[in-house]
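step 3/5: co-fold with adenosine-5'-triphosphate
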Amino acid sequence: MNVIETNNLTKNYGKSRGIVNVSFSVKEGEIFGFIGPNGSGKSTTIRTLLSLIYPTSGSATIFGKDVIKFGPEIKKEIGYLPSEVFYYDNMKVIDFLKYSASFYKKDCNKRIYYLADEMNLNLHKKIDDLSLGNKKKVGIVQGLLHQPKLIILDEPTSGLDPLMQQKFFDILKKENKKGATIFFSSHILSEVQKLCDRVAIIKEGKIVNLEKISTLKENNYKKFKIEPLSNMDLNYFNINGIKNLEIKDKTIKFMFKGNLNTLMKKISAIEISNIWIEEPSLEEIFIHYYSREE
Ligand SMILES: Nc1ncnc2c1ncn2[C@@H]1O[C@H](COP(=O)(O)OP(=O)(O)OP(=O)(O)O)[C@@H](O)[C@H]1O
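step 4/5: write C-alpha cells
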C-alpha cells in the first residue's frame, strides 16, 4: 500500500513558483528521502500534504485518503516536525507536551517520558530558557508522542549536535521497525544516505530523479586509485568509461563507469603496490543537481 501518493501536485504562489507537477508515492514502512537545494519546494510539498496550504492543481492522498477532504482525520496519524519550531515560550516543557498530547485520544504519558529520556531533554525547564537544539528536541518529542503511523520531517536535524542526531536517527529507525513510514526532507545528503531506502530529488519545483539509494550508487562512477610499481604512461588507461584520469606522485586516479571486467584485466596486467576502489558519496552523485541553470 502507498502511504503517500501525489499526482501532479502544483502550487503557484502567484509571483513565485512553488512546485510544479510533483508526482511520487511512498510505500508503507519505507524511509523516503526528499532532497533538494534551498527554495526547491520541499516545504511547499510538505505543507500541501498536510493541507496547511492548498494546491493550485493536482491532488495528494495519505493512507489512501484525499488530503484536503480528510485532512483532520489523516493528521491524527501523522507526526510532523516543521523546519522551524515555534512554541508557547512561557510554558514548561512537560506542560506543553501534555497539552499537545491532549489532542489525541490516547495516553501518551509513557511515550513523553521515554522520548525525553532518550533525547536527554529536561522536561521541567521553561521552553523560553532552552537552547535552539533543546527546542528542536521538544519538537521531536511532540511529533512522536502519539506513535504516528506516518512521520513527516522537514530538515529535522538542524540545531542538533552530532551525538543527538545519531540518537534521533536511532529513535527513527526503531519507530520504522515498529511499522512507521517516514518522509524525511533534507538538504544534507549524507544523512539521507544513512537513513533512507529511496530518495526523490526536487529542483526548481520539479522532481528530477527518484531512485533507490543502492541503485543510485551501483549505476554510478566508482573511484579508483592505483599505485603502480613502475612509471606508467597515462594512455594505458585510455579506455571507455574512464573520466578525470590523472597521475600525481606516481599514483593514478580516475572515475570509472562501465564494464568492470575490461578494466580489471587492464589493471591485472600491470604490477601494482596498492589499489583503492571507492563508492562515490551521495554528494558526488548529486552535486550537478545543486548547480543552478542560468
Ligand atoms: N508563502 C510563500 N509565498 C510566496 N512564495 C513562497 C512562499 N513559500 C515558499 N515560496 C517560494 O516557493 C519556492 C519553494 O520554497 P520552499 O520553502 O518550498 O523550498 P524548500 O525546498 O523547502 O527550501 P529550504 O531548503 O530553503 O527550506 C521558493 O521559490 C519560495 O520563494
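step 5/5: annotate
Residues 89-146 form one domain.
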